[in-house]
DNA sequence: CGGCACTTTGACAATCCTCAAGTCTCGTGG
DNA sequence: CCACGAGACTTGAGGATTGTCAAAGTGCCG
């Protein structure tokens, strides 16, 4: 196993308060792996044997219903944990994680979780905070889907993506990973057709620029207006 | 402070594995309180200073958006924890808890959480499992709202209520607490009007019997059919 | 260069929300 | 005990939003 350097994880929230020794301990039990774009890091229903930290790239987490419908649960950024079924007492992964771009992850076997709980309480606290935050974000999403129009929801989703994974390009702010209309639809509870229509309309108004699996936001203030104005009927 | 008897909590999942001494310890830090119907146990945004266990009654947990829209996050049953912001590292309560009927709760100050973490790991593990389960249920709800019609969603919500708080009555299975059309609407992301129409229709078909803040399910198999029989929203 | 996946766009329709007007139930106070 | 009022519920009409169906572009990879 290659040596993993402390600089990989130093400064990341989960490891914020750890001493050099403790980071050594953490890394000594981790291995790293590379996942190429569109490959699965773990799959829904699979027995959870490890938990993960994303070192580089972006991961899309997808949940599938028994009927085969899907939603995008979230996108994971660099430095975030994923697959932490062990911390939730779940024997299997509750969703599927797919590399949205080529990714590098650290992997720990679930077996060391008890030790970490004992020796690194600050790490665990951080993990539980992460789960709590995600629960609340999910509730906010239910509020959104329940009470807002498709237009607002898509606008908000884009703004969140900009916030989370925006990268300055010369035309505006681009989402830093490939994302399809279908993906956006699965984030907002609508269809790819509606998303496509909205994006086309916004492009005509100079708010975004569209491409294949690509969205560039060129007028964020205007998009924010759309997200907040419930029920602004704009005509051609 | 009145003496709290171990029999109050013995057998409840969070305290399953505790010794008599440990239960003594837990109870020595708890106080009990009574909340009358429609009163708030804690409020969204309020500084979280305690966590709770519902001994008797039912509690409705509601989340409100900045715009004032509400959704019912869940109903809490007897024996369940609520207001466990401390376990999620949240300084304030993320939702409001309202007594759906007269309730009795146990209350612990957040200050003793660190001690419990240290002395009663099984209790904490159970708490984290609870949070994990709720996160997954919430994701399932997003799947439902995103992909199913109003009719299916309301049917499913009723079935879940039956499962969770069904009580045999001579006509069928009644929901064991008062629940309005508006409440059901806020559970399913629709309007009280749509819920009312559906329930009226189902009453005509002999599937339910309706009353003021009351629903009795008389034909559960038929309702299950409605919940599952969905016009799929699938794409090519 | 061919094929595939992604995207766009039009036409149409239905689900479900909004608005509006009642009716019914129940608790409270006279 | 009865009347009253407020909150809960029902129901109808109408139409906007947005999903469905269909078909044709378009960019990209091998």
Automatic annotation (TrEMBL), chains A, B:
Swiss-Prot/TrEMBL keywords: DNA-binding, Transcription, Transcription regulation
Keyword DNA-binding: yes
Keyword Zinc-finger: no
Ranges for domain HTH crp-type: 148-221
UniProt-listed CDD domains: CAP_ED, HTH_CRP
InterPro entries: cNMP-bd_dom, cNMP-bd_dom_sf, Env_Response_Regulators, HTH_CRP, RmlC-like_jellyroll, WH-like_DNA-bd_sf, WH_DNA-bd_sf
PROSITE patterns tied to this protein: CNMP_BINDING_3, HTH_CRP_2
SUPFAM superfamilies recorded: cAMP-binding domain-like (SSF51206), Winged helix' DNA-binding domain (SSF46785)
Protein origin, superkingdom: Bacteria
Residue ranges of every copy of the Cyclic nucleotide-binding domain listed in the record: 14-103
Name of the protein in question: Crp/Fnr family transcriptional regulator
């Amino acid at each position: 196993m290659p040596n993993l350097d402390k600089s990989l994880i130093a400064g990341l929230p989960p490891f914020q308060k750890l001493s050099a020794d403790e980071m050594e301990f953490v890394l000594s039990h981790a291995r790293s792996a590379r996942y190429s774009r569109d490959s699965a890091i773990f799959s829904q229903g699979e027995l959870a044997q490890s938990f993960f930290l994303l070192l580089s790239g972006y991961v899309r987490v997808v949940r599938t219903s028994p009927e085969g419908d899907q939603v995008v649960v979230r996108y994971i950024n660099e430095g975030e944990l994923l697959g932490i079924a062990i911390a939730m007492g779940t024997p299997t992964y509750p969703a599927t994680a797919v590399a949205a771009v080529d990714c590098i992850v650290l992997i720990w076997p679930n077996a060391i979780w008890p030790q970490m709980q004992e020796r690194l309480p600050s790490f665990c606290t951080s993990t539980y905070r992460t789960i709590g935050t995600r629960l609340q974000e999910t509730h906010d999403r239910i509020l959104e889907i329940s009470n807002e129009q498709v237009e607002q929801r898509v606008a908000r989703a884009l703004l969140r993506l900009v916030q989370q994974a925006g990268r300055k390009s010369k035309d505006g702010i681009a989402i830093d990973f490939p994302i399809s209309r279908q993906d956006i639809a699965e984030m907002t509870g609508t269809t790819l057709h509606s998303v496509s229509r909205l994006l086309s309309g916004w492009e005509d108004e100079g708010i975004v620029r569209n491409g294949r699996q690509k969205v560039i936001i060129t007028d964020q203030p205007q998009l924010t207006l759309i997200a907040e104005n419930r029920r602004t009927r704009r005509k051609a």
